[in-house]
Sequence to fold (439 residues):
Amino acid sequence: MTTLPLGPAGVELEPHERYVPGSHWRNAKDELEAAKLGMWLFLATEVLLFGGFFCAYAFFRYLYPHDWHEASRYYLSWQIGAANTAVLLLSSFTIVLAIRGAQTNRKGMILLNLAITQLCAAFFLVVKIGWEYMPKIQKGELPGGFFTYPHPHGDYDHIFMSVYWISTATHGFHVFIGMIVIAWAMWKAAAGHYGPKHYTSLENVGLYWHLVDVIWIFLFPLLYLV
Amino acid sequence: MASPAHAPHHPGIDPDETLSSQEAHEHHVHVTPFWPMFWVFVILLVLTALTVWSSNIHSFWIGNTEIVVGSTTHILMALVIATVKAVLVGAYFMHLKYDSPMNTAVVAATIFALTLFIALTLGDTATRSVLDRMQHQKIMPGGNAHITVDAKTGMHSFNYGKNTLTVARENAKAAKTNPGAHGEAGHGADQGAADHGDAGQGGEAAKDKGSGH
Fold:
C-alpha cells in the first residue's frame, strides 16, 4: 500500500484521505461493494439464527394459541417494549446520520451521532436487564425447567418464557456486541479513518446495527403485543 | 516521496481515486440525504404506535354490528406492520434502494430460506392430526415404547416397541378389517402400554383385539 502523506496544498492528509484500496481491487468503489456484499451474507446467517427462534415461536404458538397470548399479556409490559423499540429506531437513524457525516467529511457529526447511538444501546440494555430480566429472575419467571414462579397464569408459561428468554437474550447479546463495534468505529472516526472516500467499516457497523433493529421490530409485537 | 504537485498522478494508482475528498464526493459517493431519512424515522415511530394501538382493538362497531377482532387478525396486523417497518429500514437505512441489486438478492434468498423453514415446520405441525385420525388415538412420540415391570422381581425394563408410523398403520389396518372395533383397538393399545405395563406390545394387542371378535 502506498501512502501519500501530503495533499496538493502541502497539508498533512487525514488517514481516510491517504487510504488506498487493496491492490487486488480496481478502485475503492469495488472494494466497498464487495465488503458490503460480505456483510450482507453475514447478516443472512444472523437472520437464520434468529429464524430458529421465530420458528420455535410459531410452533408453540400454533400448539397453544390461547395460553401463549395470555402469557404474553401476563408477564410482559408493552410499555417497556415500546420504549425500547423507539430507542432502537432512534439509534438506527443516528447511525445513518453518522454515515452521512463520513460522506460529507464532518468528523464531529460522525462522533456525535455514534455517541447518541451508543447511549441508545446502553439505554436499551439497562431497561432490558434492570426492568425486565432482574425482576423476572427474582420472581422465578425463568425458561423451561427453571420456571419457579408460584402464580403461573396458564399451563405453558414455562415454554413461553423459554422462547422469550432465548430470543431476547440473544438479541440483547447482539446489542452488546453492537456497542463494542460502535465504540471501535468511534475510535476509528476520532483517528480520522472515515471520510467521503473511505468509510467501509462504518458502513458495515451500520448494516449490523440496522439488522439488530429489524430483529427487534419483529420480536416486539410478537412477544409483547399479540 | 512524491511531491504534493505529483500526488494525484502517483504511479500505480487510478487517478480517479486520488482526487481530493471534495472532488471524490462530487464524482461517485452517494450522500445519504437527511430529510428522507428523517421522515422514514418518523414513519417508523408512527408505525410502532400503530402496532401497539392495533393490538388493543378487540372489537369495533359498524352500525349495529359488532366486529370481533380475533387473535389471528392481531398476529397478521402485527406481522404486516413489522414487515413494512423492516422494508423501510432495509430500503432506506440499509441503502438497499441505492445499492447494487446483488445485496437485495441476498436478502431475497434469506427470506426464501426463512419462509421455507417456518412454513415446513408449521405445515408438519398442522397436519399431525391426520396421523392422529389414522390411528384413532393420540400418538406418543417414539411409537409404543413402554416400561415393563417384572411381577416377581419388581425390576423395570425398557421396551422399545414399534415406531409411531408402524403403530399407526397397524391400527388403521385393524380398523379397516373390523370397523366396529377400532375405538376399542386404539384404547386397548393405549392401555396395554400405559396402564398394565405388560409384556404384550401395544400394536399387537390392538391387532389381536381387532381380529379376535
Summary: Chain B has eight helices and four strands. The longest strand of chain B covers residues 59-62. The helical segments of chain B are 21-27, 34-54, 71-93, 101-126, 128-135, 164-177, 182-196, 202-212. The mean pLDDT of chain B is 73.
